[in-house]
Amino acid sequence: MGEQIMERTHENGTLRLANVGEKVTLVGWVAKRRNLGSLVFIDLRDRSGIVQLTFDESIADAVKDVRNEYILQVTGTVEKRKDANPKIATGEIEIHVESVNIVNSAETAPITIADDTDTSEDTRLKYRYLDLRRSILQQNLILRHRVCMVARNVLDKQGFVEVETPILARSTPEGARDYLVPSRIYNGKFWALPQSPQIYKQLLMIGGMEKYFQIARCFRDEDLRADRQPEFTQIDIEMSFGDEDTIFAVVEDLMQNIFKETKNYTLEDHFVRIPWAECMRRFGSDKPDMRFGNEIQDITSVFENTEFQVFKNTIENGGIVNCVKFENAADKYSRKGLDQLQDFVKHGFKAKALAYLKMENDVLTGSIAKVLSEEEKAKLVEQLGLANNDLVLVIADNARIVQASLGALRVRLGHELNLIPTETTYKFLWVTDFPMFEYSEEDERWVAAHHPFTAPKEEDVDKLFTDPGHVSSRAYDLVLNGYELLSGSIRIHSQELQAKVFEAIGLSLEDAKARFGFFLDSFRYGTPPHGGVGIGLERLIMVLAGTDNIRDVVAFPTTNSSFDLMSEAPNVVDKKQLDILGIEISKQEK
Ligand code: ASP
C-alpha cells in the first residue's frame, strides 16, 4: 500500500473536454475494471461521479491486483476519448495515468454498488455504508442538506431563531405511541421521546421568543407504513402574534426558495386554499393530488324521484349519489377491469357496490343503464357533459364511504390513465378548517383530530360539548402532489378554553393537570396568540427526489418493521444495565 497523501486537483465527475491536456491528480474508489490486451481501464468513483482511467503497458502492472472498491490516487493527463460514452458526464474524456498510489484494498463487496443495483433492499440495508456509495443515495442526502440550508437561511432572514428542545421529555399528545426511556435516577419513571416539540415550542412563545424554528427529530412508535420511519425530521415552526395568513406566507416563501434553489423551479401563484369539507366533497380526500382534475360530482338531485330502488333507498336514508367522469376512457375498462375496481372499493372502502356508465355511439350503456329512466339519463348526459367514450363511475352510499371510494378511484384511474403530469409539476394546496374532533370507535370517545392545543373556530366554541362532531378547528395542512407535507394550527391561548377542550376529549381537569399541569399553568401569565407548523422533511425530500421510498432519503433507515439491519437494533442489554434501571423483563421476543 502506498503512502496516504490525499492530494487531489479535481473531483472526478467534474472533468470535461475543456480539461484536455491538463495534468490532474485524482482519488476515489474503483467502480469497474476491464482489461483490453495489455491496456487496463478503470472507472474511478468519488462523490462527484465517475471518470475513466487508462493504464498503458508501462504502468498496467502496477494495478494488476486492483479490484473493485480499492482506493487509488492517480496522476495523469486528461485526454479526449476516441469513442465517447454519452451515458456519463465525463464520457468525452479519459485520464492517461502516469503514476498510481494504491491507498487501500477492499474485499469483494456483498452488494452491487451501482445506481440500478440488483441487490435486495435488506442486504443493502445491512451494508448501508456500502449502499451509500451509490450516487443516487448520495445525491438525495445532498439534496436534503441543501433544503435544510435554504430553510435555515430563509427563516433566519425572516427573524426566526433556531432553538433546540429536549429529546428526553414528557409525553406529547400527537396521537401516536411514545418511545419510552427508563430513568436510572428515578427508577420506575420514564422519559418519553418527543413525538414533536409541540409543547416546548408553545412554551417558547410564552417565553417571549416570538419566532422559533428547529430542524427537529421526532419519534413515534407506530406500526410502520411504507412512508414512515420510527424517527423522522420536521422543520418545526412557531410564531406569535400572527394568524393563518401570516403563517402561510412564511411557509410559502420557504417553499418558493426551496424549489427555486433545488429544482430551479418557480412556483407559480398556486397555493390554493380549500376548506376541509369542500375538499372532501370535491376530491374525496384531505390530501388530494391537485395535478389533475376529474373531481367528484354530486348527482343526487338527478335521482330525486327515481324508481331505481338502490338509489332511492340510499337517498331516503340520508345517503348521496356521486360520480367521477373519465373522458375518453370507456374502451380502456373492460368488464374484468371494472370488476377489479368494484373489488377495490368494496374491500378497501366498504362500498356496497360500484356502478358505471359508458357513452358508446351516443348511447349511455353500463351496469345501471337499464334501470335508469330516459329522463335521468338525459339529465346525466347534460350535467356531466358526456361525450362518446366517456366513463362514469358511480357510488351511492353514505357520504363518508362515497367520498373515500371515489377519492381513491380518482387517484387510481389518474395513474392508470396517465392523467397525472410528470414529476416537475408541483401543485400545493392548503386544506383549512379541519374538524376539531374525530370519534374513536376503539376508545368510544371524541379525540382531537390534530392535537388538543389546536384552537376551535370561534363561532363553534359553544358546540364543544353539545355537538363536538360539528366543531371546526383552525388546523390546516399543506398538501403537495397528494402528500401531506405539513400540519399545523393556530393554538388555544386561554387557560379556560384549553381546559374545556381537554374536557371535551374526556380528559378531566385532574388528569389534564397531572399530565400538562405545567403547561396549563403557563397560560396564566400572559400567553400571546400563536400558531405554527411542522413540515415533514422526509416527505418534502421524497417529492423533490422523485422517490416514493422514504429509505431513499434517510442515511441510516430502519426496515418497515422498525429494525436496523446494520447494527441489529433494537437488541438485548446486559442484566446489569437493567438492574440499575430497576427493570425486569417479563416477556422476551425470540
Ligand atoms: N406538532 C404538529 C405535528 O407534528 C405540528 C404543529 O401543529 O405545528 O403534526
Note down, in words, how this protein is organized:
Among the domains are: 88 residues, Nucleic acid-binding proteins (OB fold (Dihydrolipoamide Acetyltransferase, E2P)); 180 residues, BirA Bifunctional Protein, domain 2 (2-Layer Sandwich); 129 residues, GAD-like domain (Gyrase A, domain 2), CATH 3.30.1360. 34% of the residues are buried. The chain has 15 helices and 22 strands. By secondary structure, the protein is α+β, with helices and mostly antiparallel strands. The strands form 5 sheets. The chain has an 8-stranded mixed beta sheet, sandwiched between helices. A 5-stranded mixed β-barrel has the order 1-2-3-5-4. It has a 5-stranded antiparallel beta sheet with strand order 12-13-16-14-15. The longest helix has 23 residues. Helix 4 packs across helix 6 and helix 12 packs antiparallel against helix 13. Strand 20 and strand 21 form a beta hairpin. Bound molecules: aspartic acid. Aspartic acid (ASP) binds next to strand 21 and strand 22. Aspartic acid binds next to strand 21 and strand 22.
List its salient traits.
590 residues, alpha+beta, OB fold (Dihydrolipoamide Acetyltransferase, E2P), BirA Bifunctional Protein, domain 2, Gyrase A, domain 2, 22 strands, 28% helix, globular
